[in-house]
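Summary for the steering committee. The consortium agreed at its last meeting that each partner would contribute one worked example illustrating the joint modelling workflow. Our contribution is presented below. We chose a case with several input lines so that the handling of multiple components could be demonstrated. No manual editing was applied between input and output; the record is shown as generated.
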Amino acid sequence: MGRYKIKPIRIVLAIMLLLACAVAFFCVRFSNYLAFGRSVDMPLLQEWQVYGAPSAENEWMFGLIVNSERNNWDKVEKLTKRDHHSLIGTYYHNLAMAKKGRLSQELMNYYQPLADGLLLPIRQGSRPLFVSCAGEVWYQLGGVIMAEHATMLGLAFTATQSGKRFYRRLAQIAHINGDTCAIKKYERLLGGPIDDDWKEKVPFVPKTDTIVFAGQNRMLLRNLLESNPDNIMAYEYLLCYDLLSKDIGSFIEDYVPGKVKSQLYDEALIVYLAGDGMLSNAMLEKYGISKAVFNNFRAYGDAYMMTNANKRKMKEKYGNTYWYYFNFADKDD
Amino acid sequence: MYPDYRGVTIPCNIAPLNFYYTGGKAETTFSYGDYSFSLKGRDVVIPETKWKELLDKAKGDSIKISSSLMGEWSIFVSPDSIDQYLTYRLVEPAYEVANWVEIFERKISTFDERVLASYGNTNNACMNCHIHKGENTMFYLRGRRGGAVLSSKGTLRKMTLKNDSMFSGTVYGDLHPSGRWGVFSMNVVIPSFHTQSQKRLEVYDSKSDLCIVDFDNNKLLLPPSLTRTDVLETFPCFSADGSSVYYCAADTVALPRDVKKLHYSLYKFSFDAQTGEIGESSVVWDAMERGGSVCHPKASPDGRWLLYTVADYGTFPIWHRECDLEMMNLADGTIADMSAANSEWSDTYHSWSSNSRWFVFASKRDDGQYGKPFFCHVDEQGNVSKAFVLPQQNPHHYDRMLKSYNIPDLGKNPANFNEDEIGRLHRYTDAEKFE
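What follows is the complete predicted structure of the assembly.
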């Protein structure tokens, strides 16, 4: 038999085919990584150095960021279907649920790192990537001053202090504020005008002026509601913020009976009524709390006594109730 | 066109006023007498040698510029030169925090820029409030191993300008012409936000007082009249001859609730440069009478003018869109017409050239977000010319700039230190104590 010689051209073609497959695999497998990199204007190699090699976790995070900025809330919901028990995952999950009108209904079914998962905090030690995400919820709520604040901080703390996703957000805010000169600057940086989806935010922008400090979330949310009582998303964020902060007093101040019906709010109302010794049929009727919820509360109380407030045992049956959260959730969780 | 340099008055020693046409390409001809040159294209980048020759010929007269796109206009070349060195901090208008802060020095007759102090060799320390006075320069390095950095008489000193009687270290201030003294404020600065988005940030002092610093004897003097708890005193500056100090003061109000009732007036007291003793204060600009709130008084070196900013209320005018520059004739108290200098955006943080013929200030005109340095000429009669922005080599520079030029400050000479020396000072030198 003669020797079989592989022609060099076939080796070259094989290598090229392998490379093409590798690139295609990368593009499909890490499409969010690529989309995020484009949005922060970073060449891939630099992005690699800054964010590390593509990983499933990073890909997932970038997917949350990219899809929320594109208002793909179905995709965000899908990405957060599995609870990663992470701050950023909860933040985007809560946002997606709020956009779909299900924030209060789903709140206790998901990991909640106290109130930080609602309004992502910016504090010393915050990851720059998280800083860059903190403005998204404020933008969606209509709180443009906080959205702009977070966007500027996010821009300042990127590796290159640049990025189209920041310019786009700043352009949207400039449009909302009517700052024509700023609009021109940011759209020039983007290479053209932006879509006009910012218009839907205009009705929710605060009309009254007051002084607030960074982190005074309750005041900011109340100010948003004052300007537009129909801002249901702000209303739900305010109530959920009160509840995740375990501030029942503020919750009762902010709660408007009948505005949004939710089992979470009913459970919280029972905490308030029980705490003030006002739990009675008349009060239950006044607040429209169902018998089923009340009976469940009684069962919770019995179990609490019987298990001697055993956290693990209470979590098994009542982990998805506000009562469990109120009694047991703490920073260490 | 951008920047708009039509009809401006420029110093005879400034870099080329490069600009670009927003509407397309053009042929642009610069001429004075029988000297002329033409440039073609959208970007008008003027060769430095040709520009210098043009300015030399046209000193005291006007250059004519004719454009195939925009017609003709002129630029007056003042025989008054301007101090050559402009110092500024580049910082994001990011509210409360900054990243990668640097202080730069730019030579105005060229495009040369160097870093005086950088985050890279100061462990990302915040640095701010740089000032010139004659041969002396001072700025602050904040944070751990920080201090007030003074370049004076050929030496660099790092100092802790705070003692146990002071509630904070020094913040805003000025150096005496002799170099021995400084007058500073101490402030507890509170940043906050307006919920109405166009107003953005509000920064106020919950406490502020003044002190005198004796650099030669490492002493801090706290006169009772300048440390009243019912008054917020701030922004002190020496008069041109150092015999007086101007400062701003307001009665305390409930903050932040009544921040819009915070109105600062301008006061003056005499200062004895031999003993450091001060006289009684008298009002120079009364906030109640005039309406508004005054900040940043700066006396011209020739002693004729006092330049300051006026906002509706408060003490941090850069975030007040309505804030404008005002210039008082110190001989008779009249206010000059500043309409050519001011804009509908904040105009503030000014600094005089040593010949009192020019001042630079930070303005947020153009885009409303990012402060840039603008220059104005002041003639013998106090007439103020149209403001123009610091020229850049790339005419598109400001389009891409996402940092503000903060506290532009003019100096006759370059700083006699560099960023490496500042880095070593930060790392290896302990701050001098003051009592």
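The CA atoms of residues 217 and 249 of chain B lie 28 Å apart. Residues 9-78 of chain B form one domain.
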